[in-house]
Amino acid sequence: MLKGFTAPRSPLGAAALAPSPPWHFAGDALAVEFWNDPDISVHTLPTGVELDKDSRGHSVALFTDYQFTAQNNEYLDPARYQSRGFSVLLDAIWKGTRIAWRPYCYVDNDAALMRGWIQGYPRKFGAVHQTRTFATASAASAPLAHDSRFSACMSAHGWLLVQARVTLREKAEGLVGLLDRRIVGRRYFPRLSAGLHDKPAVDELVRCVSDRLLITNIWVGEGELNFPEAYGEELEVLGPLKVGRGYRFSFSYSVTDVEILADLTA
Amino acid sequence: MLKGFTAPRSPLGAAALAPSPPWHFAGDALAVEFWNDPDISVHTLPTGVELDKDSRGHSVALFTDYQFTAQNNEYLDPARYQSRGFSVLLDAIWKGTRIAWRPYCYVDNDAALMRGWIQGYPRKFGAVHQTRTFATASAASAPLAHDSRFSACMSAHGWLLVQARVTLREKAEGLVGLLDRRIVGRRYFPRLSAGLHDKPAVDELVRCVSDRLLITNIWVGEGELNFPEAYGEELEVLGPLKVGRGYRFSFSYSVTDVEILADLTA
Amino acid sequence: MLKGFTAPRSPLGAAALAPSPPWHFAGDALAVEFWNDPDISVHTLPTGVELDKDSRGHSVALFTDYQFTAQNNEYLDPARYQSRGFSVLLDAIWKGTRIAWRPYCYVDNDAALMRGWIQGYPRKFGAVHQTRTFATASAASAPLAHDSRFSACMSAHGWLLVQARVTLREKAEGLVGLLDRRIVGRRYFPRLSAGLHDKPAVDELVRCVSDRLLITNIWVGEGELNFPEAYGEELEVLGPLKVGRGYRFSFSYSVTDVEILADLTA
Amino acid sequence: MLKGFTAPRSPLGAAALAPSPPWHFAGDALAVEFWNDPDISVHTLPTGVELDKDSRGHSVALFTDYQFTAQNNEYLDPARYQSRGFSVLLDAIWKGTRIAWRPYCYVDNDAALMRGWIQGYPRKFGAVHQTRTFATASAASAPLAHDSRFSACMSAHGWLLVQARVTLREKAEGLVGLLDRRIVGRRYFPRLSAGLHDKPAVDELVRCVSDRLLITNIWVGEGELNFPEAYGEELEVLGPLKVGRGYRFSFSYSVTDVEILADLTA
Q: How many inter-chain contacts (C to D, CB under 8 Å) are there?
């Protein structure tokens, strides 16, 4: 009897690329809000999702640097279960509800890549880095303090795809207009059978369900953001016409579920 | 209208992690035949697949070092589309037909990881290396010649999982008893919806369909093989009780299809 | 006029692998004290350095996860200037003074590799990971708290070289018997001229000079440590006969100097 | 008695980052000749080296993909001893002799990085890729044939630094005007002692000595080349005003020596 939440299924279930939920995440994030061209970003939306007319073009560039664990102390295997990721989130509407549509995301770890595909995040491999803060005072520490600066970048296969910087101005109680929408993604798994390459086996619009979301150490300031042009990617057309606030915060949440909004294979 | 064979689907279809088939592969391979314990390896088989009683425990460790292209000159983007992989193949039977069951495989590239999942290869990320042969005579060249030696290794997340060596003895016309079975894998894509974690959306037993398979520069000799114990893997239990011949050859083939043998969700 | 502290020297001095000192470091560390076999570890000492008879075999396995900056906001280039390292430190004596001899160390970044060689740290490339602590409560957070556990590991070229774990027991005011010795290393740069391969151009025994050393958030507990055998390394012979306390702390310090103890080319 | 050609010196000499010469190399190369602005490239020359007035601005972009061995079958440890590199070579003159000055080079392996510094190549870490040719006919094979195309690229820390392409036109007997100059580099190892940061311990102008150089399978065609702008590098100012021929060939050579042209510390 083979076991495991994902392939490879194995006698003990220890070989699976991703362990069974619940999945727990704790990390640090750097985010920059920006506005892109709604006449372009509209073309990244799947059927049934519209741009939010009240904030047309408002988007978020989100960098995360986090630790993962499931039920077997995965956080004690840091070579496998620490990850760094990048996502773009577009303000959008699904059947009248405010959502954030995630057209592209990147991560630096195979287990995270697979978790993403299962959750409806279309992850590809990227090298993601962000300035970290350390406890002791030093020119190298990047303290959480007024005027402190944090950078982040993401590249894939040698192409720089995103550069960001946040200059902290003040501590905040909440994220105020950031990440206040449920994230919507798309679970997609194609068929390879001849003649069926355009008939995916799985094509579901899904809303992420996050439990026990905690956000702390929130700092707000000014953002800078740039999406350089790169071959083999379509991220740059979502790049900023205008850049807004920047945020730096710590987070944790858990995942055991996903809400299926629509079966797009139908 | 979003395009792309895989997610992320995008306006131009250029962002997809894997391009549409046909997929073409050309590369070099190092293979070692071995026998493991059938009382253990039988537990890696899915329902309906049996070990081959005529060659109980006969298996192949296969290292590949290859270049990929689809329709858009992907081979001219070597940072994205060169890959190195490792697979274990077990001699098995499906409904009376001789097959090779592939319980575990590893690759060093995100596009190859995703292609594998779509083809029914349960790939995880591994760092795979094999000695290469070069055209000019040198102590560093590893010529295709009698007594020439080739090594290969694979590690994942810092754990050494496989070590192999082949000492060439003679050039051969064909692979003679190696890779003469169609490879069977399992397409598997789980559900994340609460209560359905053990009801995969896709669970298909599939037989790989390779077109235009070419094998050349075949050398046969003696193999050495070792599967060290490693945390988070179940490869080592398939390790060799006895090691047989080693092979070094070049190959090419194309993929546009997969044959579905059984829907295991039923 | 070419500029730069290291090669490549360039018109603007921006291409140099390592910028000019002062160098500032801030990070987190995981350390495990252990005792190895003094009859073996004595063979890793250079001329003039002896094992400390008062603590024969007492050694430290030190993992660091840190950010670097020099004078040009290098900490805002996290892809280049974050590093993770591992070192072994042996209790030793130089001319009657208690020192820590560093026979082997590893780091995951080219700029850090070169800084190490200049400082007298014989760095090689290693993939180093340690469990991190995050600010929000979660199963994934690894809080600084009683019974919290942290793991670390280091591998090089696919071989696992070190595994460690620390279980926190209590917060401490100081490191009490850990890292209370000045670290001694060896600056070594060989000649390649024929006939002079064993006459290095630089061979200096040096004592590291750290300014503004700060240590905070110190937790002490129990350590676990293992040096697996690996090809192409000699770390395992320094492995633990006995393991003692484990430590987790944050640090910062600066470097502008090194003290030359002896010119070993003489 | 500690052994090893480089640090870390160890009881058995097996831990050294680079083994003792002779060093043997075998590999494939892609090269593009180009002309940059001599008024700019002149500023990358050290004292005593001049641009070649007969070919002012003529330069070569050289990508290599190779296997290394010394005396202990290092080629059987492919995870450690395969490397891919990139160099820029400028036509120059040293005391009336035609040389190629190598201001910048990159490699993807720690042992190769250190060998480079010892040989006078100012290597930094780069991810280097080139299209490979495989023995079996396939859309993925990139045969050595008329109109076949090969690409190469190099990135460092997520920045794309070089892109090249060569379209093969005809097989050639020799390299005809390419790599017909001895390569000159600079061995440079700084002091860290306070007050001496600008007084390197080693600063030698050196001419590389290659034994048993073999070049085969030479194809000549048209080159394309681009040096994108990148932070933390000064490569782009050497970028092409005009691009010439492209080359693809296989090579092998050995190294046991370097010729010291001048001691620049004097």
A: 154
Report the gap between the CA of A242 and the closest CA in chain B (Å): 22
Q: What is the mean pLDDT of each run of 10 residues along chain C (266 residues)?
A: 95 96 98 97 96 94 98 97 98 97 98 97 98 97 98 98 98 91 97 97 95 96 97 96 98 97 94
Q: How many residues does chain D have?
A: 266
How does residue A213 score in pLDDT terms, banded at 50, 70 and 90?
A: very high
Distance CA B52, CA A217 (A): 60
Q: What is the ipTM of this complex?
A: 0.96
Question: What residue in C sits closest to D12 (Cα-Cα)?
Answer: C234
Of residues C119, C189, C192, nearest to D258 (C-beta): C192
Which pTM was predicted? 0.98
Crossing angle (nearest 10°) for helices A110-119 and B110-119:
50
**Taking a C-beta distance cutoff of 8 angstroms, is the pair C178, C33 a contact?**
yes
Whether the upstream peptide bond of residue B22 has omega within 30° of 0, thus cis, is: yes
CB contact under 8 A, A15 and B232: yes
- B238, B41 Cβ separation under 8 angstroms: yes
Chains contacting C with at least 3 CB pairs below 8 Å? A, B, D
pLDDT digits (tens, 9 = 90+) for A18-45: 999 999 999 999 999 999 999 999 999 9
Residue to mutate among D71, D141, D212, with most B CBs inside 10 A, is D141
- Whether A211 and chain C come into contact, CB under 8 Å, resolves to no
Q: Give Cβ neighbours of residue C2 (< 8 Å, ≥ 6 apart).
A: C9, C10, C11, C13, D43, D44, D46
Show which of residues 165-204 on chain A sit within 8 Å of chain B, judged by CB atoms. 186-190, 192-194, 197, 201-202
The tokens of B140 are what? 């560093």
Distance CA C27, CA C31 (A): 13
In tens, the pLDDT along A84-128 reads 999 999 999 999 999 999 999 999 999 999 999 999 999 999 999
Residues D234 and D122: their CA atoms lie apart, in Å, by: 13
Query: What is the spatial distance between Cα A29 and Cα A219, in angstroms, rounded to a whole number?
Result: 11
CB within 8 Å: B151 and D77:
yes
Q: Which residues of B touch A190 (CB under 8 A)?
A: 5-6, 118
Beta bridge partners of A130: A152
Mutate to test the interface with A, among D108, D154, D160 (most CBs of A within 10 A): D160
Over residues D47-74, the pLDDT tens digits come to: 999 999 999 899 999 999 999 999 999 9
DSSP state of B3: B
Question: Which of D29, D122, D42, D88 is closest to D240 using CA atoms?
Answer: D88
d(CA C153, CA C86): 9
**Given the structure tokens 């043998």, which residue do they identify?**
B261
**Partner-chain contact C193 D46, CB within 8 Å:** no
Q: Where are the alpha helices (DSSP H) in chain D?
A: 38-41, 78-81, 110-119
Q: Note whether A162 and A153 are within 8 A (CB).
A: yes
CB atoms within 10 A of CB C52: 18
E-assigned strands of A41-191? 49-51, 58-69, 82-94, 97-101, 105-107, 123-125, 127-130, 149-156, 159-171, 182-189
Give me the mean pLDDT over the A202-213 stretch: 95
Q: Give the list of residues 6+ apart from residue A152 with CB closer than 8 angstroms, or none.
A: A30, A63, A86, A128, A129, A130, A131, A162, A163, A164, A165, A166, C78
Residue D113 main-chain phi, psi, to 5 deg: -60, -50
Give the three-class secondary structure for C167: strand
**Checking phi first, is residue B81 left (phi over 0); if not, alpha (psi -120 to 50) or beta?**
alpha
Name the residue with tokens 């295709």: B144
